[in-house]
From TrEMBL:
EC number from the UniProt entry: 3.5.1.2
Lineage: Bacteria, Pseudomonadati, Pseudomonadota, Betaproteobacteria, Burkholderiales
Gene Ontology molecular functions: glutaminase activity
Cross-referenced Pfam families: Glutaminase
SUBUNIT field: Homotetramer.
GO biological process, one term: L-glutamine catabolic process
Root EC class: hydrolase
Entry superkingdom: Bacteria
Species of provenance: Comamonas serinivorans
Protein name per UniProt: Glutaminase
UniProt cross-references to Gene3D superfamilies, sorted A to Z: DD-peptidase/beta-lactamase superfamily
InterPro entries: Beta-lactam/transpept-like, Glutaminase
Catalytic reaction(s) noted: L-glutamine + H2O = L-glutamate + NH4(+)
Keyword Acetylation attached: yes
Length: 308
């Protein structure tokens, strides 16, 4: 099936609605000035055929989508017991930045795709690589997956470091429960930088290609990024936890493993077929791109692709 007309059709249908509803994330000052009008889409098939539409090639702040890359990095370097001992694999049913559950559950985050869980993953990466080394390893992984250099937006990272009070609270809270091994400042520096990765939909669809290829590298198929089983598990976590307390709604409406970020990006994986990335900055109440969800819904209804 030629998917270029599908992407073009979605952009044509949605462009008039871009910026009409939802709210661009403004709790991170550097994100508040992004135009709500942007709309981009890109996909890459398992065989490596790529298509894009609208502003598919325009880089933006990937925010929580980075949680997939840091989990991948952690899975590559830690054994399962080490990794999952202090991070769960259950949907949270609460907001991405909620503190409530953490207290009840002894500082153990529900899953690696909410902020607390990603901060715990960042802590494990600091243990493996050190603070500067963790940031360098993340850039190296993502650049390698993209086949071109990817960088942090230092202005966004600094903006988050200056205003990320809830994330600081969360990290200190977990540290108080003995669940964080390294200095809070070092862990948060890694976390704020990972959120500030700047990538386009084209790059995201390419980089996350291993998730639709049973873990095989998107550009060098004979190499595994993660094992087949690990790729399956990342997809399972994306389906159940990738969009916070809207994961049920996403599974119902879209039916694909997805990961969103407050920069307005969402990536979706159709195992054995393709990865798809959308970008539209205005968010709904749960912090997921409003028009991005509509674009994904249109994509699955126009193509019939679903994991169900
Ligand atoms: N959902 C998100 O994209 C959240 C990431 C954001 N940097 C935060 O920590 O609040």
């Amino acid at each position: 099936m030629d998917l270029q007309p599908v992407l073009d059709g979605i952009v044509a249908a949605l462009a008039p609605l871009a910026g009409a509803e939802g709210k661009v994330a403004d709790y991170i000052p550097a994100l508040a000035c992004i135009s709500p009008q942007h709309l981009g889409l890109a996909l890459r098939t398992c065989e490596g055929a790529a298509s894009q539409a609208g502003e598919g090639a325009q880089p933006f702040s990937v925010q929580s989508i980075s949680k997939v890359f840091t989990l991948t990095l952690a899975m590559r370097h830690l054994d399962e017991r080490e990794l999952w001992q202090r991070i769960g694999v259950e949907p949270s049913g609460t907001a991405f930045n909620s503190l409530v559950q953490l207290e009840f559950e002894g500082g153990k985050p529900r899953n690696p795709f909410i902020n607390a869980g990603a901060i715990a993953v960042a802590d494990r990466l600091v243990s493996v690589y050190g603070q500067a080394g963790a940031k360098a390893a993340l850039l190296a992984l993502v650049s390698d997956l993209c086949g071109e250099p990817v960088v942090f937006d230092e202005a966004v990272a600094a903006s988050e470091a200056a205003t990320g009070f809830r994330n600081m609270a969360m990290c200190n809270f977990m540290k108080g429960f003995g669940q964080i091994d390294n200095a809070v400042e070092a862990v948060l520096d890694v976390y704020f930088h990972q959120c500030a990765l700047r990538m386009s939909c084209v790059q995201l669809a390419r980089a996350l290609g291993y998730l639709c290829r049973d873990g095989a590298h998107p550009l060098r198929g004979s190499e595994q990024v993660v094992s087949e089983r690990q790729a399956r598990r990342i997809n399972a976590l994306m389906l159940t936890c990738g969009t916070y307390d809207a994961a049920g709604e996403f599974a119902y409406r879209i039916g694909l493993p997805c990961k969103s970020g407050v920069g307005g990006g969402i990536v979706a994986v159709m195992p054995d077929r393709l990865t798809l990335a959308v970008w539209s900055p205005p968010l709904d109440e749960a912090g997921n791109s409003l028009l991005g969800q509509v674009a994904l819904e249109q994509f699955v209804s126009r193509t019939g692709l679903s994991v169900f």
